[in-house]
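User: quick one, fold this
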Amino acid sequence: MLLYQLTQWFEERSSLQQALHNGEPESHGELQQRIQEVEQQLHSHAERWKNAIQEASYLQFPYENPMLDDDMVL
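Assistant:
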């Protein structure tokens, strides 16, 4: 679901930028504002993902018995 939202925001950002380049000068302010809003949403979700990954890495337990990995079967 999250990837779907990110994809939608990237598509919206691309279409807004295209409209900005092809559009009328009086609508540039509105388009720029909407592009900034979409970019803020993307940045917010990227930060949330980064923090979730960091938290998950803290919850992992260190591997405590590496000698058990020595398998004598070839």
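User: anything notable?
Assistant: The two ends are 44 Å apart (CA to CA).
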